[in-house]
Amino acid sequence: MDETISRRSLLDAIASDPSSTDELEILVKKVYAQYLGNLKGELADYIPELAKVAPDQFGIALGLPSGRVVSVGDANAEFTIQSISKAYTYTMLLDLIGADETLKVVGVQPSGDPFNTISLDARTNRPLNPMVNTGAIAVAGKLLELLGKEAFDKILDTFSQAAGRRLSFDQKVFESERDTGHRNRAIGHLLRAAHVYEAPVDDVLDIYFKQCSILVTAADLAVMGATTANLGVNPRTKQRVFGLDPVRQALSVMFTCGMYDGAGDWACKVGLPAKSGVGGGILAVVNRQIGIGVFSPRLDASGNSVRGQLSCAKLAEDLGLHAFDALNHGSSFLRGLL
Ligand code: GLN
After folding, report:
1. Residue 95: what are its φ and ψ, rounded to 5°?
2. If you measure from the C-alpha of residue 82 to the centroid of ligand 1, how many angstroms do you get, rounded to a whole number?
């Protein structure tokens, strides 16, 4: 117990003196070393271009409130963001039309199903939540209707602002998924038939496949996560990227739905809002504190990075980050009471 308090105080110490990151760097390096040899899991080969990725890359990055990034391993290697994009296009839609209108497009209920399940909520005829493919394609359709031809450019601009650097997208991965993504195309038509959007299905899917092909690094994910943690303001550039209410809503849905059919286990073990992608990335958010980005492309059966999950769980344990860890929130206040 005492140990958790002192580990937690590491983050408190960094908050008061942003240059004191040495201890944190040591801790992150230890987590990296612990899992470096774990080569379990497989690449996502259902998108042919993803099967060509070097499988054993591994990087961890933490984005701190000062804007500093503490990183180790392949934290600057680029990979496609894939489903992590869903959390940020959802935040964009919330910013544009608010929570009530967004609920007419997509719900907020965990599905407990794999990410590519083809089904709608029987009561609403809308996707259950925006973190699975049905929901994310619905969000892409709505963004297309609202933003027109510029929709993808706006998505790329917003993601770049959240990451604090100009991002690009991988044309080959985009084309590879566009040419083989028949299941997502089926979802696109299902949503069109349900009048979730009236836009042409191919145009909606082009946006969805492109947003999934945006190239990021673990360090970018850490800064994007830190932007969310910092209530929508990028701690590096100080630019406000998202509003307060959209951030709150997106974090709530990431907490309950971000890890697909593994979401419940994740909530109990790690206790952080997070989003994974089949490119091998995981982004986790410690509300009002830090963003975590991990990249390791070998995936488990749910499509979540094996080493990404292990690293997040270990960091959460070592730093006392679980949202309901009795000893973490306002730790100095609690310490005074103990
Ligand atoms: N582009 C991928 C797909 O739609 C994203 C899936 C994921 O990252 N889980 O299948």
Report:
1. -65, -35
2. 5
Residues 138-148 pLDDT 10s: 999 999 999 99
In one-letter notation, the amino acid at residue 33 is A
- Which residue matches tokens 């993504």? 181
Instruction: Tell whether 180 and 274 lie within a shared domain.
Output: no
Q: Identify the burial level of 55 via C-beta atoms within 10 angstroms of its C-beta, where 0-12 means exposed, 13-18 middle and 19 or more buried.
A: middle
Q: Residues 289, 301: contact at Cβ < 8 Å?
A: no
Q: Are residues 239 and 278 in the same domain?
A: yes
pTM exceeds 0.90 for this model = yes
From the CB of 174, is ligand 1 less than 6 Å away?
A: no
Ligand 1 atom index nearest CA of 177: 1
Closest to 227 (Cα-Cα) out of 115, 92, 83: 92
- Identify whether residues 127 and 170 lie together within a single domain: yes
Burial of 100 from C-beta contacts in 10 A (0-12 / 13-18 / 19+): exposed
